[in-house]
Design a protein that fits this description.
Layout: H1 10-14, E1 23-24, E2 31-32, H2 45-48, E3 56-62, H3 65-76, H4 83-93, E4 102-105, H5 110-116, H6 120-132, E5 135-136, E6 140-142, H7 154-161, E7 165-167, E8 177-185, H8 189-200, E9 205-213, H9 224-233
Parallel strand pairs: 3-9, 4-5, 4-8, 8-9
Antiparallel strand pairs: 1-2, 6-7
Helix pairs in contact: 4-6, 7-8
């Protein structure tokens, strides 16, 4: 596949801002409109039930607007040079207080990689490794091609990627702290599946870092007791 290179103006690259929300899960950093989905420890339902295979998740911005367009240009039109500014967003979102031993990209099945010409996650991981001085280890392998996750429910997404990944070289990650890199986090199903196999291979800690995450916030009705108390307080 021939790499196509188009210039992207500096104003477009400067436009995407970091995501913001009033309430986040303390672990997976899922944003919420109200605190009601979170428990006393600040954890969402998925994290409380241990359904996320990773320990923490970080993203630069929401998957919309200019940031979405930049990611699409990068992935679908072959503008590999966008790996550098997109990795810059990753570097901004990377928590400075955490220590990691390895950067591991989410793998693509070889057929999809052949069709696209590159694995966008690997390009991002390589550029982030260059920026941070961390070591990159492409130890994950995608065993089978999976249907696109778009349009699937959360349960269907998790079933779609179940048993889809293996670790081909466990040595580098055994006992280490791993930073799993991808372009977009939607429900976290793919990241969870990758993190789970990394932990089974001996990784001590797995955090996820993506350029963007889907904004899945919805307005949830307040519990009846809280709504009643609020109405009485307003009288």
């Amino acid at each position: 596949m021939q790499v196509r290179r188009y210039p992207v103006c500096e104003s477009c690259l400067a436009e995407p801002g970091p995501l913001s929300a009033d309430f986040f899960c303390a672990a997976c950093r899922t944003p919420f409109l109200t605190p009601h989905p979170l428990d006393e420890a600040g954890l969402c339902g998925l994290c409380r039930r241990g359904l996320n295979g990773f320990d923490f998740a970080y993203s630069y911005g929401f998957y919309d607007g200019t940031l979405r367009k930049l990611i699409h240009l990068f992935k679908y039109t072959g503008i590999e040079t966008l790996a550098r500014p997109l990795a810059g967003y990753l570097a901004v979102a990377l928590p400075r207080e955490d220590r990691f031993d390895w950067i591991v990209p989410v793998p693509m099945h070889w057929r999809r990689r052949w069709a696209r010409g590159f694995n966008q996650s690997a390009l991002l991981a390589r550029e982030l490794a260059r920026r941070t001085g961390l070591k990159m280890a492409a130890v994950l392998r995608r065993n089978r091609p999976t249907p696109p996750q778009a349009g699937l429910s959360q349960h269907e997404r998790r079933r779609n990627v179940a048993h889809a990944f293996t670790v081909r070289r466990a040595g580098p990650v055994q006992g280490g702290r791993v930073l799993l890199v991808d372009d977009v986090l939607t429900t976290g199903a793919t990241a969870s599946a990758c993190a789970a196999v990394l932990k089974r291979a001996g990784a001590r800690h797995v955090s996820v870092l993506t350029v963007a995450r889907a904004d899945r916030r919805i307005s949830l009705p307040e519990p009846a007791g809280r709504a009643l108390a609020a109405s009485r307080g307003g009288r």
